[in-house]
Specification:
Number of strands: 9
Largest sheet: 6 strands, mixed
Number of helices: 8
Order of helices and strands: HEEEHEEHHHEHEHEEH
Structural class: alpha/beta
Bound molecules: adenosine-5'-triphosphate, magnesium ion
Radius of gyration: 20 Å
Helix content: 25-40%
């Protein structure tokens, strides 16, 4: 350990183990007779540093959800290894807002805490923090049918944050939303991420969304999904999701990722 006043060498921070290490990951789905049906993911390797925001982009069916489900331990891989270096299991946000219709917004957000038997006072304190963080304070007592799609997704995000897991896995959480709502939620997610310092893996179809949010973008090929590129996104933080579009580098990178998606082998 460094003595008081002694400078910590920058390489010491870099030596910290990544939050997520995926090595030569392969996944195939078999039919009930055991014949191989679909190779979903083939030999994918990447790592995610603690506190990093990584987006995965790739065409429909290339295995993005499969990778995320394996990270969440909802699916077993066929080959390779997956290691999560965190004290808590990851939290997951799914593409469809997964709110319980019979519970209020507050009760939905508190749900993971109530399952754990956390005291009512602690639940209330934590939920009011999350309501404020996600801009839902005025809707604490509303039920899901009274909310817009974007608000329901905010509830899903708040619930994923409520028990303070270190790793957040997000599967196209804003995919079903209109462009404007999406932009608002992207800005909010960036603010929340900057406040909480979580490690995030975020799947999206949208190159634009990936470049807006991520420190790094992983590009996958069509099925079977392989890793085509692992790109560092250079924009400084905090980011303004509208203003960053004035930066020429945004459009240069958009072009680069589109070129990789259009021609994954030859690019
Ligand atoms: N439980 C399953 N049983 C059989 N095949 C599956 C299963 N889950 C996924 N697959 C197949 O694996 C491949 C990858 O699916 P996955 O859902 O990971 O793709 P994706 O990249 O998330 O696509 P999208 O962008 O459309 O959500 C697809 O061909 C799909 O049909
Ligand atoms: Mg998917």
């Amino acid at each position: 350990m460094a003595a008081v006043g002694e400078a910590v060498h920058p390489s010491a921070a870099k030596a910290a183990p990544p939050a997520i290490e995926v090595s030569h990951l392969t996944k195939a789905f078999y039919d009930s007779e055991g014949d191989r049906v679909t190779v979903a993911v083939s030999d994918v390797s990447f790592s995610v540093a603690r506190g990093e925001f990584v987006c995965i982009v790739g065409p429909s069916g290339c295995g993005k959800t499969t990778v995320l489900r394996i990270l969440a331990d909802l699916e077993q891989q066929l080959g390779g290894t997956v290691k999560l270096n965190s004290a808590t299991p990851p939290a997951m946000v799914f593409q469809e807002a997964s709110v319980l219709p019979w519970l209020t917004v507050s009760e939905n957000i508190a749900f993971p805490l109530s399952l754990k038997g956390v005291s009512r006072a602690k639940q209330e304190a934590r939920v009011s923090e999350l309501l404020a963080l996600t801009g839902l304070t005025d809707f604490a007592k509303a039920r899901p049918h009274q909310l817009s799609g974007g608000m329901k997704q905010r509830v899903s995000v708040a619930r994923a944050l409520v028990d303070d897991r270190e790793i957040l896995l997000m599967d196209e959480p804003f995919g079903a939303l209109d462009e404007q709502t999406r932009l608002v939620l992207q800005q909010e997610l960036l603010r929340i991420w900057e406040t909480t310092g979580k490690t995030v893996v975020f799947i999206t179809h949208s190159v634009d969304e990936a470049l807006t949010l991520a420190d790094r973008v992983i590009v996958m090929s069509p099925r079977p999904g392989t890793l085509v590129a692992n790109l560092t996104v250079p924009f400084e933080r905090p980011r303004d999701v509208v203003e960053m579009r004035r930066d020429k580098r945004f459009w240069d990178m958009t072009y680069e990722v589109w070129r990789l998606l259009a021609s994954p082998a030859g690019a």
